[in-house]
């Protein structure tokens, strides 16, 4: 049988086997109703508001373009470890001979999709136990992403956690791990296969291979060095030629833009609802909780410009949704 995406029990099993870490983090996010923040420059903030959209940029233009290679190295080490990959090989091949090697072969064949044809936007969990982050934002993020005109959007989490395939773009939490700390997380997948292999034996082999390659695909794109753990990053990932369910969307369009002097392809994710497909809460008035202006020499001109653009975009009470964090500027 094929994967039945309309069957809640099948979807639950699928997540437990192939995405245990991401599913656990998503459940925690829902329970705590954690909001997201996106740190950027004031110029880009105006582009987001006026365009009612965000740009998904290629993995090659990330702050550290070696991140995808880091994820791949973590996967390779776990795959080759007899206590991790060896167990997985035994479990899979006991159901279908040769499946373990076929998964790795297919994953390798799709390597160019991750290195050349995957696009993303980064967001960060917002808030901490003493509420200082809600008041001021996160200083390390101000320093890393906003330049001299720091702005942070604070977003409600609804469209990021919707169970929808309307856009063929997927929200993925970043796993902060090195080669050794990645292995216990990969072992959770192995244990899921061992637990459910009697059920998987009734599922089409090609569907299982695709599901496993999907898990490896997002692990490669969402694993980061543990030194960055305090960023608490999530990623919205779009790979045009890749789909979890086999359905592809035409809602995200590409164009060529010049960003910081670098000509590049970007994909535009419009802030729109698609209620018939379960994607809701994504329009700017629904999505935006507030805008925080961070350390900058120009807080009040930026405040005035952002409020004006929010009013034009139909965001109610714009004046009350924008504030200055008042962190002193220090360079």
If you had to describe this structure to a student in words, what would you say it looks like?
With about 325 residues, the protein is α+β, with helices and mostly antiparallel strands. It has one domain. About 45% of the residues lie in helices and about 20% in strands. The strands form 2 sheets. Strands 1, 2, 3, 4, 5, 8, 9, 10, 11 and 12 form a 10-stranded mixed sheet that branches. Helix 4 packs across helix 11 and helix 5 packs parallel to helix 11. The chain is elongated. The protein starts with 7 loop residues before the first helix and ends in a 7-residue tail after the last strand.
Features:
single chain; 331 residues; alpha+beta; ten-stranded mixed sheet; two-stranded parallel ribbon; 15 helices; 46% helix
Explain the layout of strands and helices.
Layout: H1 8-18, H2 20-32, E1 35-41, H3 42-51, E2 53-58, H4 67-80, H5 85-95, H6 99-109, H7 111-116, E3 119-126, H8 132-136, H9 139-145, E4 149-155, H10 158-161, E5 169-173, E6 175-176, H11 179-200, H12 205-221, E7 223-224, E8 233-238, E9 253-259, E10 262-270, H13 284-287, E11 288-296, H14 299-312, H15 318-321, E12 322-324
Parallel strand pairs: 6-7, 11-12
Antiparallel strand pairs: 1-3, 1-4, 2-3, 2-10, 3-8, 4-11, 5-8, 9-10
Helix pairs in contact: 1-11, 3-14, 4-11, 4-12, 5-11, 6-12
What value does the Rg take, in angstroms? 21 Å
Number of strands: 12
Kindly name the structural category: alpha+beta
Please, how many helices? 15
Mean of pLDDT = 91
Contiguous uncertain segments of 5+ residues:
none
How much beta, percentage-wise? 15-25%
Level of helix content? Answer: 40-55%
Shape: elongated
| N-C termini distance | 60 Å
Largest sheet: 10 strands, mixed
What's the SSE pattern?
HHEHEHHHHEHHEHEEHHEEEEHEHHE
Query: How many distinct folded domains?
Result: 1
